[in-house]
Design a protein that fits this description.
Layout: H1 13-33, H2 50-67, H3 82-104, H4 110-121, H5 136-151, H6 153-159, H7 167-172, H8 183-207, H9 212-223, H10 241-254, H11 258-265, H12 269-274, H13 276-300, H14 304-319, H15 335-347, H16 360-376, E1 388-390, E2 395-397, H17 400-425, H18 431-442, H19 458-473, H20 475-498
Antiparallel strand pairs: 1-2
Helix pairs in contact: 1-2, 1-3, 1-6, 2-3, 3-4, 3-20, 4-5, 4-19, 5-9, 6-8, 8-9, 8-10, 9-10, 10-14, 13-14, 13-15, 14-15, 15-18, 16-17, 17-18, 17-19, 18-19
Length: 499
């Protein structure tokens, strides 16, 4: 007598998605509890511990329950674009869960709490928090969010799990390059590089006279290109050239693709310095600093040395989308200054880095495409050219599909930028200030003309929140997630009607 063994079906669909989200929910709960370590050094903040314990423990419990859907079971493959649904959902979960401590404190409503945590997770740095009246516990909470937002939730999850959970989630979160053939080892290498740079930054800051707590806050803020500070006047508070230089170096490091970091640390300097984004970045910096310095000398009568120092810091802060400042305000500056800063913010940082913006690689490809096209007009149409650019590992051919992808993304990005700027201008702000503020939110920069603050209208903060969220996850991922949810929703409704 033959006995047929029925193999259990692999977990698929939304049961699989909920299981993944359960794991991420536990992770987010743990992140919410991490700032409580600060109480060992600042026990006077102990009365606020309950604001973190409640949401952190509940998130871990709920996540554990959902994780049981897939625990110990064979997992199937995700359907097309379901990876995008997981990534978008887990970022929304992270934003809401970590917003609860702010709401439970009684000082922030839902809108302001979500704005603050979206700014943290997206490594933007726009803030509604008055840091002069905020405890060490909440300041560390913001920086903890910055730390994990910089490398990404999926990288954190993959670093402690097996390779089963795969490359598609890794790619969907914006990590285009693997440092090693194994995606899990790549995630762990990213964390090691990230942590070592932050540790080095803390040590250097302390050597230059910065208090240890401030050093931790600013090292995380600079490398994550997040820009959260515990000082109302940001880096300007310290009046130190050495601290500014350390901050600029950390901001540039945070702006560079993690794969390029690996080549740099391995001593493969040719690969590093030939990389198209590295060269493009330094060309932009070298071009913008003298112009900004001239504008400061000409319009504000600064001495040349002071104007060059201010220009260097502001240009690097804008291009790396960090948002630290050494200028007290952007009010009263000429339109030409604001235009250059807006352009730098929109270009943003490197692909696969902690920075935001359109990304230097896409802009570089489009610049090269224009040059190639103009050159082709002066050559015989019978001649065929192979167009290549330097990537980190080698010089690679650029296909027309990649150029189309870059141009499409830039077009969508600029459309969102113009629409967001228009909406802000409807509240009575000048178009210049509205464009500066929304480019800062969309490119996850954090520099501000003062439009988005604690007393701003809820609608203004939600416009900023939307910009930061879409800018961090990049437009394609959000669109793919929405289209997948729409398709699955229609399929579910159709099934119900048939039943």
């Amino acid at each position: 007598m033959n006995i047929t063994t029925i193999q259990p079906q692999p977990i698929q669909g939304y049961r699989l998605i909920l299981g993944y989200l359960g794991m991420l929910c536990m992770l987010i709960g743990g992140i919410t509890l991490l700032p409580l370590l600060t109480l060992f050094f600042y026990p006077q903040d102990g009365k606020e511990a309950i604001y973190f314990l409640l949401p952190g423990m509940i998130a871990i419990l709920v996540g554990f329950l959902f994780y049981q859907l897939i625990r110990g079971k064979e997992k199937g493959r995700l359907a097309r674009n379901q990876d995008a649904v997981i990534v978008v959902s887990c970022w929304l979960l992270a934003i809401v869960i970590t917003a609860f401590p702010f709401m439970l404190s009684g000082h922030y409503d839902f809108t302001r709490a979500v704005f603050e945590t979206t700014s943290g997770w997206s490594t933007t740095g726009l803030s509604v928090v008055d840091v002069t009246h905020t405890s060490h516990l909440f300041l560390m909470h913001r920086s903890t969010i910055l730390f994990f937002g910089g490398v990404g939730l999926v990288v954190i999850m993959l670093s402690v799990l097996s390779d089963t959970y795969g490359m598609r989630l890794y790619n969907a979160e914006g990590h285009s390059d693997r440092l090693l053939p194994n995606v899990i080892k790549s995630a762990r290498i990213i964390l090691i590089i990230y942590f070592c740079y932050i540790s080095a930054g803390v040590v250097l800051y302390v050597i230059c006279g910065m208090p240890i707590f401030d050093a931790i806050i600013h090292s995380i803020g600079a490398l994550s290109t997040g820009g959260f500070s515990n000082q109302a006047d940001s880096i300007a508070h310290y009046h130190s050239i050495s601290i500014e230089i350390i901050t600029m170096v950390l901001m540039i490091l945070g702006n560079i693709n993690f794969l390029a970091h690996l080549f740099l640390l391995r001593g493969k300097f040719r690969n590093f310095f030939y990389y198209c984004e590295i060269r493009f970045q330094f060309i932009l910096i070298a071009f913008a600093i003298p112009i900004i310095a001239f504008l400061l000398v000409n319009n504000l009568q600064y001495r040349f040395g002071d104007s060059f120092r201010l220009a260097a810091f502001q240009v690097i802060s804008a291009l790396t989308t960090t948002g630290f400042q050494t200028m007290s305000s952007f009010q009263g500056l000429p339109a030409s200054f604001m235009l250059i800063m807006i352009i730098l913010q929109l270009i943003g940082g490197g692909i696969g880095s902690t920075a935001g913006g359109i990304k230097q690689y896409r802009v570089y490809v489009m610049v090269k495409h224009v040059i190639w096209h103009l050159r082709s007009l002066f050559h015989s149409q019978k001649m065929l050219y192979t167009h290549k650019i330097y990537k980190v590992e080698r010089k690679e051919k650029i296909e027309s599909a990649e150029i189309l992808s870059c141009s499409t993304y830039i077009f969508m990005y600029l459309v969102i930028f113009l629409l967001g700027s228009l909406l802000l201008s409807l509240f009575g702000f000048s178009l210049q200030d509205a464009m500066f503020e929304f480019s800062s939110a969309l490119s996850t920069v954090g520099l501000s003309t003062g439009i988005m603050n604690y007393h701003a209208a809820d609608a203004i903060l939600w416009i900023g929140t939307f910009g930061m969220f879409v800018g961090r996850l990049e437009i394609y991922v959000v669109i793919m997630a929405l289209l997948r949810l729409r398709k699955d929703g229609h399929h579910y409704l159709h099934t119900l009607k048939k039943a």
